[in-house]
Amino acid sequence: MSVLRFEAVSKVFRSSLRGKYLYTLGPIDLGIEPGEIFGYLGPNGAGKTTTLKLGMGLLRPSSGKVLIFDRPHDSLSAKRRVGFLPEQPYFYQHLTAVELLEFYGDMFGLERHENRRRALDLIDKVGLRKFGNTMISKFSKGMLQRIGLAQALVNEPDLVVLDEPMSGLDPIGRREIRDLILDLKARGKTVFLSSHILQDVEMICDRVGIISAGKILEIASVADLLDRSVESIEIHLEGIAASEARDLGFTGASALGDKTVVTVAHQAEINLAIMRLVAAGARVAAVLPLRGTLEDYFMRQVVGGEALQRGVPGSDGRTAGASAATGASELVSNAAGKQGR
Amino acid sequence: MTGRVMGIARNTFKEAVRDRLFAVIGVFAVFVLVSSFVIGPLSLGEQVRITQDIGLASISVLCFMIAILVGTSIVHREIDRRTIYTVISKPVERWEFIVGKFLGLVATVSLLLGAMTIMLTVVDYLVGGGFPTQILVAVLLIWMELILLTALSVLMSTIASPILGAIFSLLFYVIGHTSADIKDLAARSASASVRIAADVVYRTLPNLEYLNVRNKVIHGVHVDTTYVAFASSYALLYAFVFLVIAVMVFRRKEFR
Question: Is the pTM of this model over 0.90?
Answer without folding.
Answer: no
